[in-house]
Amino acid sequence: xxxxxxxxxxxxxxxxxxxxxxxxxxxxxxxxxxxHEWAKKKLLLCFPSSDSFDRFWKGxxxxxxxxxxxxxxxxxxxxxxxxxxxxxALDDVISEDIDNNVDISQRDQTKSRxxxxxxxxxxxGSHVENAGPWASALMDVWNLMAGFEEEHALRARHRxxxxxxxxxxxxxxxxxxxxxxxxxxxxxxxxxxxxxxSKSLRRLHELALDQMLLYHEILSFRxxxxxxxxxxxxxxxxxxxxxxxxxxxVDTAMMLITKSEREFVKEREELLKTPLGQQSNxxxxxxxxxxxxxxxxxxxxxxxRYHGLNHEWNGAMSGKFILTPxxxxxxxxxxx
Length: 336
Prior knowledge:
The chain is mainly alpha-helical. It contains 16 helices and 3 strands. β2 and β3 form a beta hairpin.
């Protein structure tokens, strides 16, 4: 993919469908404050300095949950937020971005391997006091490690893989698979049997994952592109040399987002008319899943994590987005 300017690329987003209602958690900000206290206690030592931790926090990764899970009980939202905050911090060190440094391409992966080894040791029985701060924080939250390891392995193949292979790994390493699992935890339901028995329920799960992942791929592209890590991004995969241009790749992603969202709304409505869909646990899950998709979309636009630490979202979701190493320049609301 060629850069039209050494320090700038851009793409145009069409107006989104927004077929799903958006409803944030009523006490989200209050619970975010509690997570901040937890993070200062448990994660601060994982960072090179307090300034580094502060920059991480300004990325607003923690806002993903209160924007996306309105029906969670307060205590479970707090626990889930701790997990997600841990995973975002871990994602930064795995991608060598612990200081939000865009020039990551100049670094090696020594630090990420060191941290991965430290954490993996916990699963092999290492004593926490001997395992370091990352392992210590892990003991307070449950962590999904497979996605990070698989992304390392796939990255080593230097794009010698299919889109489907990459999508499978990205769902895990970006946390999208985990996001769906958190719904059951947060609203106190267990749909293990229903998912085993219902092809329709599994299909809605797949559509939701596709919609959420592709919004993530478009809107996290700036961060990964200027860090030299874009090879594991779907948009960059389509826009690699000899294939599509960046705008064509974004258009492909938006086409698939639109298709997934339309089909999700249609097929969810059909399932809710069936005896399975009228079960209280299934109904609650499918309602929350729709809110999660809408909240995840807005989080991708809002997060300074993806658009630069001084980013304040103006509400624009369409128009020309200019990507620079320092920030995403959003269109004005009137332009979008």
